[in-house]
Amino acid sequence: MHPLKAWATLVALAVAALGVVASAQPAPARPNILFLFADDMRADTIGAHGNPRIRTPTLDDLARRGVSFREAHVFGGDSGAVCVASRAMLMTGRTLFHVPTSTMGDAPLLPEVLGKAGYATFGTGKWHNGEASWLRAFQRGRTVMFGGMSDHTKVPVKDLGPDGRLTPIRIATTFSSELFADSVIDFLRSYTDPAPFFAYVAFTAPHDPRQPPAPFAQPYYDALPPLPPNFLPQFPFDNGGVRGAEGQMRDENLAPWPRPERMVREQIAEYYGMVTHLDGQIRRVLDALEATGRSRNTIVVFAADNGLALGSHGLLGKQSVFEHSTRVPMIVVGPGIPGGRESRALAYLHDLYPTLTALAGVAAPAGLDGTSLQPAWEGRGEPRDSLFTVYTKTQRAVRDQRWKLIAYPALGYLQLFDLQADPHEMTDLATTPAHAAEVARLQGLMKTWQGQMGDSVAIPTTSAKPPALDLTGATRTPDQWQPEWIVRKYFRE
Asked: Where in the chain is the domain with CATH 3.40.720.10?
């Protein structure tokens, strides 16, 4: 054989041998996923994201270790209970126009898809979309609360029994955040299977009733947080989320009109206390994960189902398309994900479905409305250049990185905000002649989104100022979940 041919043959054999050795190496282990979900948590309640008034050392640490999506939003709600639609969209990757939100129908659920791909799935905490869908989603579970809210010290929960059925309701008296943390910690400590896991922890904090343990509330009472920059004593018109079919909406019934400034500050103090207490329970969960030796191969997601007004614009609840109610915190940490990164990509909660299936190496089902966020942190582009948000049939909004148009179809009213100059949405520019072209552009963009979503609500083509609303002295019936001091101080006096 010619010497050059012999050398080429030896090189080819060596390369082939290396290929055999490489193929014999075990494939990288698929990552575990720990999903931590808060309830009614505003996007501006994390210290590392610019709030100096709140103490969130654990969430601050997650922000330093991962990617924070600072423009993450819930798509919206089809009822006053926005969390029902939010959780359905999270678990199906579809918008509320494409899934029955109360039950999720037969849409493939994120844990269900991961489970069929070999993941062990565990669930604890709030599930607001029916028992049948939960049973499809999870193979294991403990202390599951089916419903929207409860006293945080008396939580009605069910467990998944060894027969694959849910046990009868029992009342757990451990504080809710501790209760759900305890459950996932027990799972993490006892889990020894070689398969990767998906553990979903749906906390009910900081949803009202806001009743943080005293040591977590007192520091905020001692130095009351300030009012939101966009605080108003009253919201000036009925946007469809102020009054329900039977009068004032439940969330808006948690304080009198006009809003007492001190009361709003006290409610924010309690809210912050709930968040700080939740932050400590998340620390316990992460410490337990670290102790198992699995943390290096675990993706940790922290997010919340929707925001909350808490005095912004004179509102208290989440039944609006203002940023304070639609923006949510979202942090993703894990192997291959850069640390200390903030992304301004326009994101939805339901983008987490295709993001997590991609990171897990699992094929996502057809029909998703969400888009993987992985390219955003890898510098390969952003998921979209605009967002569309909705609340029932009464409110629609579309925004890009600067401009936002809100439409109130039943009122024939439009609002335009420059989010760069006016992030708190206080100065309406819709009727300013200099911005007419911007209004028209965004109206067209909104109609494009409606066509994609199958939304048939007619958007106003012109804008008329709605009737003024003054609820001073309106009849108020204290809700059963209002803390006693609210009832005593603001309703009985």
From this structure: 32-386
